[in-house]
Write a structure and sequence with these properties.
The chain is α/β, with parallel strands linked by helices. It is 38% helix and 20% strand. It has 7 helices and 7 strands; from the N terminus they run βαβαβαβαβαβααβ. Helix 2 runs antiparallel to helix 6. It is globular. 43% of the residues are buried.
């Protein structure tokens, strides 16, 4: 199927920073190819921490705006459900939040978390996304893709979370440095080497995914559903 020009792309994440960690390079590529990229986050991303302070939440919001400006996408909505407690919110509320954005954006391609993830918020967002984008006869979207999050998807185990098994690799060689630059806005969320959520770990993962398919740097995804309409 031929790719539509200037198609709308929607990214659905649990926390601001997930979009850059999971697919910052792919966002840049979509923008470079003329697509319109929108994102929605579900939680405040920080309230579960013992050291939580209101200023930290404000700083996180500022960081998300800077990252979106550098990568070229727009935050269309940022919910404030409690961090790491999406399992305390009814699934239908999360689904309705996504459906509201869906009506505004009418995306062709949807990106969200993999269900093969240790983080409960990520798994719930995955389930809510698949529910909001049920393949009914009047739908217009064509594809749902799931991404991995370093220090989260890799911390899962098949006995609990199933396994992330990518079947789509996107070349981000031209855009890798832009991803790292945007990620520096979330420096408070990064860990030191040799953790997978370190700057070195992010580079290693992009190299590894690229090397799996003969590229220098890549981000990998699972195509959860694709419909040739």
């Amino acid at each position: 199927m031929k790719k539509d020009k200037n198609q709308n792309v929607l990214i659905i994440v649990a926390h601001t920073d997930d979009e850059t960690l999971g697919m910052g390079g792919t966002i840049c590529r979509h923008i470079d190819e003329g697509d319109n990229v929108f994102a929605v986050s579900m939680t405040d991303g920080i309230s579960s921490r013992k050291e939580y302070k209101k200023k930290a939440a404000i700083d996180r919001n500022i960081a998300s705006k800077k990252a979106s400006s550098e990568l070229g996408f727009n935050w269309i909505k940022q919910e404030s459900y409690p961090d790491n407690e999406l399992d305390s919110i009814s699934l239908i509320r999360v689904v309705r939040s996504i459906e509201e954005v869906k009506r505004k954006v009418n995306p062709k391609i949807i990106y969200t978390h993999s269900s093969a993830d240790l983080n409960i918020d990520h798994r719930i967002v995955n389930q809510a996304t698949l529910t909001a984008f049920r393949p009914k006869s009047n739908e217009e979207w064509i594809e749902i893709r799931a991404f991995e999050i370093p220090s989260s998807t890799d911390y899962g185990h098949k006995s609990i979370t199933s396994t992330f098994y990518p079947n789509l690799y996107i070349d981000i060689t031209k855009f890798f440095n832009m991803k790292i630059k945007a990620l520096k806005n979330y420096e408070e969320e990064m860990l030191s080497t040799p953790n997978s959520r370190s700057f070195e770990g992010i580079q290693n993962l992009a190299k590894y995914r690229g090397n799996q398919v003969g590229l220098e740097y890549a981000e990998s995804f699972e195509i959860l559903r694709k419909i040739d309409r």
